[in-house]
Amino acid sequence: MPFFTEAPETVATAGSSLDQALVLALLALPLAGFGLTALVGRRMGDKAWAIAVPAIVLVWLAALYLIFQTLVAGAYGEAGLHFRLYEWIPAGDFTVEVDFGVDALTAVMLIVVTTVGMLVHVYSIGYMAHDPGRWRFFAYLNFFMFSMLLLVLADNFLLLFVAWELVGLSSYLLIGFWYRRRSAALAAKKAFIVNRAGDFGFGLGIMAIWTTVGTLDYSDVFQLLPAQVESGAIEGWQMTGICLLLFAGAIGKSAQFPLHVWLPDAMEGPTPVSALIHAATMVNAGVYLVARANPLFAQSPEALLVVALVGTFTCVMAAAIAFTQKDIKRVLAYSTLSQLGYMFMALGVGAFVPAIFHLVTHGFFKGLLFLGSGSVIHAVHEEQDMDRMGGLWRRIGITHVTMLIGSLAIAGIPPLAGFFSKDEILGESFKLGFGWVWAIGIIVAVMTALYMFRLMGKTFYGPSNVDPHTEPRIHESPISMTGPLMLLAVPSVLIGFALGWPPESGLIHQWLAPVFHPLEEALHHGAADYQLLGIDGFLLGASVAVSAVGMVVAWRLFGFLSTMAPRPALVASLTARLNGPYRISRDKWYFDDLNHLLFVRVGGAVARALWWFDVHVIDGAVNGVASLTQGTGHGLRQIQTGRVQNYALGIAGGLLVIAVGYLFIVAR
Amino acid sequence: MDLGGLPILSAVIFTPLIGALLIALVPREREDLTRWLALGTALVTFGLSLLLLPGFDPTAPGFQYVETADWIPAFGIQYKVGVDGMALVLVLLTTTLTWISILASFGPIRSRLKEYMISFLILEVGMIGVFLALDLFLFYIFWEMVLVPMYLIIGIWGGANRIYATLKFVLYTLVGSLLMLVAILAAAFSFQSATGSWAGAFDFEQLRGFGFDPTLQFFAFGAFFLAFAIKVPMFPFHTWLPDAHVEAPTAGSVILAGVLLKLGGYGIIRFCLPLFPDAAQQWAPLLIVLSLIAIIYGAIVAMVQPDLKKLVAYSSVSHMGFVTLGIFIFQPQGMQGAILQMVNHGIITGALFLCVGVLYERTHDRSIARMGGLAASTPVYAAIFGFFMLASLGLPGMAGFVGEFLVLLGTFDHSPIAAAVASVVVILAAGYLMWMYQRVVFGELSDFLKGVGHHLTDMDRRELVTLTPLVGLTLVLGVAPALVLDLIQMPVGEVLARVGGSLVGAAP
């Protein structure tokens, strides 16, 4: 039975009806764009984007207004804007409403989702221009925007879960966009099913929340559950259990160990999809979930430790794999895993604001890097193997410069965006007493610089390995593609400084303070001020120094501009000397092989065995009884006279016997 | 709404019978007239069933639109029909699926059309009668009445192995229902010997207030339940279902999955629990375990099915496991979820069988291994099939999700472990459905389908008319499940009050 507490009525009325209408427009526009494009897009030919892209530009404008109102003007107060559309599920004392909310955390998510989303839509006009299925592409892309916006606007756990599954569906549709390719169809299915494994836990977590406090509304849950822990109504382990079940969902969506296996395969989708869904927005949903549920995680140091462990492990593992992959998009995919690992690492140590900060900066520079890789792939005619690239930097200048900016940003070179957010994660980890997290984070910082400039070197510098037939036709992408690259390069340079200066009290901290208030109180009491000339300066210097070292080593090995030539012989001898680790990394730590063995081989055998059991044992018993009866029937054939009266007599007699027997035995 | 004294429930029940009689008078060679007369009858029945809605008060307890007439007064047997919210949604499901099935039969059924349509309309009489009967004897008559037309539909218009399948279906079901007849008589005798009168001895409303003695309850529950469990079908009584589905014509499968299985779930909630509440409590733990087995086992076995219809059949075993699970946890959200799941499963699985039928019409094959690459050659079909594939795996925003979630939520309240076991199906269902869809729809066009050549056309207008309403219903019930939930709140509260389940907030 739910421990039923009278929940306070929390649907505030802040914000005018205009603001509410704009929130609804954020959802209605992409949904309408999806519907219209799905219905008439095929007949729109070259102009298949003509509904979908303007819809998202309008969404972006509406979102800017809401972001401004929330973060700058403070029009909705600390709690934010909340309102109800209708009652979705009325089932006795279990009711779920379609409630929306815009607070500081949602607004920060909106910055990334709508900006990158808008730019990716524009980019796709050029990228998908020659694909006959582009109408489908734009329809799906709009559907994704609807689902993702629902995810950040939802004001209760079940509505969040709905959006959670719908972004998964969008991801499935877009990974499998080129469905004729078997690998694409398999990757789409794998992404959905692996995510479902995470949602298995997430769903149970939601049920556990409801049976404990009798509501699923964020604000009520965040008040009632911690209160129950404090009053002793529920045990600490139950709180930890709820947090870990929710975290299972986060592991799936954000592709953390051990559910990370779907994301690299998801690169089968068109590159704009990789940029938008599998780098900048959807994969952040797990980080968002943990951040959103911070009042719950604040009650469970054990759950936070698990978050930190999973994040840290994924961070190292993925970086180690990124180092040996040949496919340019796979390198970026493992890099995304690793960077998401940083975010979970930060959440786990209690550095929630830095985690969201890194989510924002990563959204921009990783979106840039993926779109850049798409431009590269476009230039060399759909080639993704970096061994067949090289020397492209003079040929596709805009793509090269913007990707270089992205690489410097992810490597953590000041004053670009990644530097500020990564430094805050590492610095806070150290100061909050997680020396081991800091140490691993520093190691991954070196690895990040190494694998990113390996990618840059193999793609852009040194001699060209491009197919001779393609070589003369290498060309820079059209403005609809380079434009978004340039526009994404701006925040990749500036947004770290803009939001993160001065360190630990920049704009992002001011914005998010109300959201993480309970957590800060629980974890950060008595934290020292930022000391540029003390411990903080040292930590900062250390992380910059190691990144610079990693970068320079990569330049020496793989080349840089015209100043440094690549040294393939040295790379080859290093690879040979480190053959064992190299192979483990190249084969992705054998997770895919393990899964294949476990689920395809063993699982398939179990399923076939059960089917045999069904046909031969269960149905065999049924048919056995039938033939036994038939045999008896043969023996009793004599009384089959074929006269209906006799049968009627028999039936009546039988009923009589039963009735009389009953009267004597039971009714007595 | 004033119906002008029209006995509306009898009108809904017997309109198809009138249609069947009219069709019997149509000359055999007027095939089009037969088709349109059948469809017209089904649509009129559907329209009449919609007329029940405006005057129905979902907050009123008990039955509405009740009609009573003496039938065999010597034994207190009456013609008594009435409707509550649960029966109402299931009647609407029946009348909807029947006209869709008849329309879907326009193309495929070419031989003995007259007999086919008559069988189908009589089948509808039986199905609606089962949901509306309030006299146990009347209920039994309708219950058996369903069997005969279905026996013919599979046995005459079915596939190669139809005789085996239909005999198995009928004999299996008969075994269950004969035991139920014995239990009905036993209950009536017991009532008669206690009250000294036959009056009301078969009247459900009288009997449900009568506390039967524990021994009778135990055995009568078992007999009723066996009949219903075979219909559901509940593990381990499910093996007739894959055979029947594989051999049945498309429309037969739609009705079999869409309505006939629900007769079982309905019977349990309507009769087993209120009449024999103590026995229900005794049996519940075993039945919960069997439901959990059905949910997981059905999904795992579905994974390796080579035949599209068998795959959907085993998925039904899994999905219907949620219905019995939701019933026997005796918890308000669980039981509302169970009823909602019956409606959703009827719509979604009915639609999936229609989709398989569309493919079968063109290829005369259902083997998954021979298919492939339909997305490029028949995009509309691929989209609609994909839509119902997603609905079947419980995607939120579509009908399947809410019912399943409510059952899981109720189960979690009762036993988190049981909920965790049942939840595994969210992974398994995604597995078998998406794997099937990938093999049939994605990839390059298979050699087999290339051989089909120009017969492999996209869906025609008639097929779209059968499937589009189901697309709409799937979305509407996903976004606004309140349409069903508001109707079944009261019946669920009443049943749980009888069975002594937890009742917090069940009644409005």
Tell me about this structure.
- Chain A contains 26 helices and two strands.
- In chain A, strands 1-2 form a two-stranded antiparallel ribbon.
- In chain A, a hairpin with a 2-residue loop joins strand 1 and strand 2.
- In chain A, helix 13 runs antiparallel to helix 14.
- In chain A, 56% of the residues are buried.
- The N terminus of chain A is likely disordered.
- The C terminus of chain B is likely disordered.
- Chain B has a domain of 212 residues.
- In chain B, a hairpin with a 4-residue loop joins strand 1 and strand 2.
- Chain B has a two-stranded antiparallel sheet with strand order 1-2.
- Chain B starts with 7 loop residues before the first helix and ends in a 9-residue tail after the last helix.
- In chain B, helix 9 packs across helix 12, helix 10 packs antiparallel against helix 13 and helix 13 runs antiparallel to helix 16.
- Helices cover 74% and strands 3% of the residues of chain B.
- Chains A and B meet through strand 1, helix 5, helix 6, helix 25 and helix 26 of A and helix 6, helix 8, helix 11, helix 13 and helix 16 of B.
Q: How many helices of chain A in DSSP terms?
A: 26
- The CA-CA distance between the termini of chain A, in Å, is 40 Å
Report the helical percentage of chain A: over 70%
The SSE string of chain A, one letter per element, is HHEEHHHHHHHHHHHHHHHHHHHHHHHH
Alpha-carbon Rg of chain A, integer: 29 Å
Mean pLDDT of chain A: 86
- Spatially, the strands of the biggest sheet of chain A line up as 1-2
What's the story with the biggest beta sheet of chain B? 2 strands, antiparallel
Low-confidence stretches of chain B: 502-508
- Counted beta strands of chain A: 2
The secondary-structure class of chain A comes to mainly alpha
Q: Please tell me how large the radius of gyration of chain B is.
A: 22 Å
What's the average pLDDT of chain B?
A: 91
Percent helix of chain B, as a range, is: over 70%
